[in-house]
Amino acid sequence: MEHLIHSEALQDVDCTFLKGNHEATLLEFLDTPEVGSSWSTYGGLETLLSYGVQDIGLSKDEAHWAATSKRFREHLPPAHLEFYKTLESFTIRGEYLFVHAGIDPGKALSEQTDAEFLWIRDAFLNDTRQYDYMIVHGHTPQSEPSKDNRRISLDTGAYQTGVLTAAAISAAGVEFISTR
Fold first, then answer.
1. pTM for the full model?
2. Distance between CA 83 and CA 76 in Å, rounded?
3. 112-120, long-range: CB within 8 Å, 24+ apart, which pairs?
4. Which of 74, 101, 105, 158 sees the fewest Cβ atoms within 10 Å?
5. Average pLDDT of span 75-95
6. What residues have CB less than 8 Å from 50, skipping those under 6 apart?
7. 3 pLDDT band (50/70/90 cuts)?
8. Residue 180 pLDDT more than 80?
């Protein structure tokens, strides 16, 4: 996070940082602590620990999560909170649309909500229609990155596999780069 916020190497690079469901839920947890119970099952505990919030425990008790949210707010550096708040739901670069999870294929881009951008899976993944853009996304881990005529899927489950994948997109095509 510090590298993304403060890196001199990125100062002259046109970067757009995307929001995923984990970041959205982190922000929601600050205002609606009761989401902590579900967030704890998909990265919330690890996030809280990474910020130095100790003695979290698993609980369904709202008072527990309210206290944890308060402690988290005390540990979260203001620059990190501001960074999370400025994340974009999607960005378009040329003929590519970059998004965390995908889009609802039955809706125009202007009708999409964060629910689709952050959470959609099957309706997007199983659809065969052509889109106005090549969709570049993650959210659904797979053993290898993939590309077809509609989408580029990059999620190789780094949190479990240790394999982080990116795509170098140029006029020559798409090249996958992985940490293997």
1. 0.92
2. 11
3. 114/19, 114/24, 114/89, 117/19, 117/89, 117/90, 118/19, 118/20, 118/21, 118/24, 118/89, 119/21
4. 74
5. 97
6. none
7. confident
8. no
CA distances from 98 to 40, 53, 123 (A): 27, 32, 17
Length reported for the chain: 180
Other CB atoms within a 10 A radius of the CB of residue 32 amount to 13
Return the sign of the alpha-carbon dihedral for residues 126, 131, 137, 142. positive
* Interval 5-21 mean pLDDT: 90
What is the DSSP code (8-state) at residue 41? T
- 68 confidence band (pLDDT: 50, 70, 90): very high
- On the question of pLDDT at 57 being above 90, the answer is no
Q: Are the CB atoms for 68 and 45 separated by under 8 Å?
A: no
C-alpha–C-alpha distance, residues 151 and 49, integer Å: 35
pLDDT of residue 1: 80
For the chain, the distance separating the N- and C-terminal CA atoms, rounded to the nearest angstrom, is: 22
How far does CA 145 lie from the centroid of its chain? 16
Q: Which of 144, 3, 162 is nearest to 154 (CA)?
A: 144
Which neighbouring-strand residues pair with 176?
167
Whole-angstrom Cα Rg for the chain: 18
Residue 2: both structure tokens together: 């510090």
